[in-house]
Predict the 3D structure of the following.
Amino acid sequence: MKITVLGVRGSIPTDGADHLIYGGATACILVEADGQAIFLDAGSGILVAPDTGSEQVSILLSHTHIDHILGLPLSPIMLSDRRIDLYCEARGGMSVREQLERLMSPPLWPVGPDEYQARLVIHDLKLPMNIGAISVTGIESNHPGGSTIYRLSADGHSLVYATDYEHTAEKQRELIAFSRDTDLILYDAQYTEEEYARMKGFGHSTVEQGLTVLRESGAKSMLFVHHDPRHNDRKLAEMEQELSDSRAAFARAGMVIEI
């Protein structure tokens, strides 16, 4: 599996000279394996998606909060002559198509999902499933409005994408079991412990809780994602230097990982 980090910011995109190292684009991770190109979320990071050539393209949305679909209407992959399969959970009594059309329709946007050069095929998520030779499983996260945590497995390797996740004792046990012996966990660590005390219930976690999941799951590595928009490069570097486990790091836009 080849994993390309395209967007790591949470809540809203950020820019400026103090957000260059870790990046300011919102959630988007590209996973390539066995002729498949799978985008995990379609935040503004998808705007810099590389050319995936002849690979089959799919998008797995954790959920449709705006920071996770912000890049879809302007994504270069939507302007190419190809089929794109998009999967997400039906929520709030709305199909995935109905959720997306809330954003991609007038007056918020001039064109709908079916008016692009690409043929976007929208699926209400049903797990487990296979995308080519890649096995996709999932569990429900703990996040306002709901969100899906994914595990992608192929050729004896796997990764877990656990963004927009808030720890509770029960949910942490579930995530540890779901992540057992995986190669990589992408973990939402938006808040410091001090911030979390004020933000409890917002649907995000902390570095300390992520390290517990890493240790107890037996996973090989962890990248922290969904960086708070208020955390500039200096703050994130300070948090990274304080990590107590060499298997963990803070994700930077542009990173490429092979597992």
